[in-house]
């Protein structure tokens, strides 16, 4: 990657996506997540990175799409994404969002709770439209990075408890609704997961759930497959993850003597994270009594994850990747917040004003969580495919920043 050239062409900060990496990730999932016993589906969780160019790339590969808001859904609509391939999630979808999803004939609405189901039923009756749904279940399996607890995480804001009163009431609503058809169950147990055992526990529980029905239903296992941000992360290759989930499901179906219509997964981060990098220019270097700061021209406005949940990243000074790393530096952004730090204490070579700094694995939840705090302008996004770069999101201008202000 010629970072200097990209800086000259597009400026910094700059989000750079290697499209070849995203394509490879998609192909890995597609080639391995398949079974001859049931249908399979890969649904990209677009909250990780939802822009028109990304959705067009997914369309080239025939992936399905998970959206969680009117905005994400509207982006899909604007690029002509097949509405039937969309799963609409969310724990508090508004009536406006549901109406829009129904009128656009979104494939599946993933219903979070009883209140939503009742509202959906009313809307469906009013609009005289049939609606296919999944129910999001809290299956009591919580996965946090390397740890998992197979006890009910009862206070999650997502889904209904799989064995609770609310769930049973939902089944009653469904029995009495000529408009709403249950197509399956959904569970998402967390993110950046490096262990497949929690998914095995989910599979066992969900197969038990669908056993109660007189027709084969679908199971959506959500996303959460871990990626590498630093050397400390050891993700399981996607082909291994995919094959494991398929084989575990096939074995469990046999074990419980159940038929499954479709198995889906919803990877977000694992498709885009490692394909993305963020390019910054170092504007200054400051030595305090105990710290050496490298100041970058972006920060928490283009990558909130370190400030939000202490996410770790790796970085290099462009052109000095192989130089002796003799400085322990803290990469700080330009916001008026002490917490505006992208990387704390990273070993790097000496840097000077004007050097370029690259942070790796920033493709997921970076751009999509960006903000205009301190009235920072949202950076441009560039796709690089077979060494050709293409601008896919323009840098926000000052006038665009003020566009909606009256
Ligand atoms: C319902 C659902 N599906 C899929 C995902 C994607 O997770 P990840 O990006 O970790 O793969 C999320 C992330 O929060 C989610 O909430």
Helices and strands in order:
Blueprint: H1 3-10, E1 14-18, H2 19-32, E2 39-45, H3 52-61, E3 64-67, H4 70-78, E4 86-88, H5 95-103, E5 108-111, H6 114-127, E6 131-138, E7 142-144, E8 147-149, E9 160-161, H7 165-175, E10 180-186, H8 197-211, E11 217-220, H9 238-256, E12 260-265, H10 269-272, E13 276-287, E14 292-296, H11 305-309, E15 315-317, E16 327-332, E17 341-348, E18 356-360, E19 380-385, E20 388-393, H12 398-402
Parallel strand pairs: 1-19, 2-3, 2-12, 3-4, 4-5, 5-6, 6-9, 6-10, 10-11, 11-12, 14-16
Antiparallel strand pairs: 1-13, 7-8, 13-14, 13-18, 15-18, 16-17, 19-20
Helix pairs in contact: 2-9, 5-6, 6-7, 8-9
The structure holds pyridoxal-5'-phosphate.
Pyridoxal-5'-phosphate binds next to helix 10.
Describe it.
- The protein has 406 residues and is α/β, with parallel strands linked by helices.
- It has two domains: 136 residues, Beta Barrel (Lyase, Ornithine Decarboxylase, Chain A, domain 1); 255 residues, Alanine racemase (TIM Barrel), CATH 3.20.20.
- 30% of the residues lie in helices and 26% in strands.
- The chain is built from twelve helices and 20 strands.
- Strands 1, 13, 14, 15, 16, 17, 18, 19 and 20 form a nine-stranded mixed beta sheet that branches. Strands 2-3-4-5-6-10-11-12 form an eight-stranded parallel β-barrel, surrounded by five helices.
- A hairpin with a 2-residue loop joins strand 7 and strand 8.
- Helix 6 runs parallel beside helix 7.
- The longest helix has 19 residues.
- About 2% of the residues have low confidence.
- Bound molecules: pyridoxal-5'-phosphate (PLP).
- Pyridoxal-5'-phosphate (PLP) binds next to helix 10.
